[in-house]
Design a protein that fits this description.
Elements (H helix, E strand, L loop, with lengths): L58 H8 L5 H5 L5 H17 L2 H8 L4 H26 L5 H25 L11 H16 L2 H26 L8 H6 L3 H19 L3 H27 L6
Helix pairs in contact: 1-8, 3-11, 4-8, 5-6, 5-7, 5-11, 7-11, 8-10, 8-11
Length: 295
């Protein structure tokens, strides 16, 4: 990986964030993390789109990835859901993520193992904080259903973090320090937790759910079950429908909260969503570069 000494792994959640992928030895694989039943990985992607074979240009996967959930209001044409506006605004960021060499390396199996492990280790650190953030946010929820959803998601994050350590990082040096990008991301979320209304807190937490689901859907649609890919077990681990339902719940909560907000409040939600979305890209990029602290 490369926290302060440049030699430690960081990885994906449910993976959120398997196996060891070896660039030179694609036959070497490990089983994915065992997440307790009913608590699928917090970042597990949605199921792949119906197949008829991989789309050579990847356009079908990209369209599926950026298609947001639509609220009843949006479906009826009565109003434009906040989530639709947010997703359209974040589409360029998602496109940059889908084009990132880290994602492409996972797709074609050429990602160096040390970078994959770096990502795994950093993601374990991230999920530990994300679980605490979700649990703390539940205390600010405006109804019991939202609080219960956040508590369940916090539990899933903690369980996934444990699964990462047991399955992916066994025998490996653990990340002791978050990278600058990792720390920036979690600090930004904690900032909203301490000073923002519940609606903005939820908007800042949403990209971790929604963008990762879209990235997972993209990878599953294009990579499928390619036997030659040393990361195929990792990729296929994240196709749980349970996580897809969790993502939809998070989106619906944000839409409902936005509907009760002032224009300024909705703008604040959008700003938080966009900033956190950009930090999702930074997290992938940090793993690709095995980002060290500069001093």
């Amino acid at each position: 990986m490369n926290d302060n000494n440049g030699s430690q792994p960081a990885g994906p959640p449910p993976a959120p964030k398997s196996q060891e992928g070896r660039q030179q030895a694609p036959k070497s694989q490990e089983a994915g993390p065992q997440v307790p039943k009913g608590q699928e990985a917090l970042r597990a992607p949605a199921p792949p789109a119906p197949s008829g074979g991989p789309d050579p240009g990847g356009e079908a996967a990209r369209i599926a990835a950026v298609a947001p959930f639509r609220s009843p209001e949006e479906e009826s044409g009565e109003q434009t859901a906040w989530s639709l506006k947010a997703w359209r605004a974040a589409a360029p960021v998602l496109e940059k993520i889908l084009e990132h060499p880290f994602i492409n390396g996972l797709l074609d199996g050429t990602l160096p193992r040390e970078r994959f492990l770096f990502y795994i280790g950093q993601d374990a650190l991230y999920l530990a904080d994300y679980g605490r953030l979700l649990a703390a946010a539940s205390l600010k929820a405006e109804n019991d259903k939202d609080a219960a959803f956040l508590c369940e998601s916090a539990l899933a994050a903690v369980q996934v973090e444990g699964a990462l350590h047991e399955s992916y990082l066994k025998g490996e040096k653990r990340a002791a320090t978050p990278t600058p990008a990792n720390l920036l991301y979690t600090s930004y979320l904690y900032r909203h937790l301490s000073r923002s209304p519940f609606s903005t807190i939820m908007a800042s937490l949403l990209p971790c759910f929604w963008i990762y689901q879209s990235v997972g859907r993209h990878m599953l649609a294009l990579a499928g079950n390619a036997s030659h890919n040393p990361y195929r077990d990792w990729i296929s681990t994240y196709g749980g429908e349970e996580f897809g339902r969790s993502v939809e719940k998070a989106v619906r909560i944000c839409d409902r909260l936005a509907a009760g907000e002032t224009p300024k409040g909705r703008e604040g939600m959008l700003d938080a969503f966009m900033t956190a979305s950009r930090m999702e890209w930074m997290f992938w990029d940090s793993a690709w570069k095995m980002e060290p602290w500069p001093v």
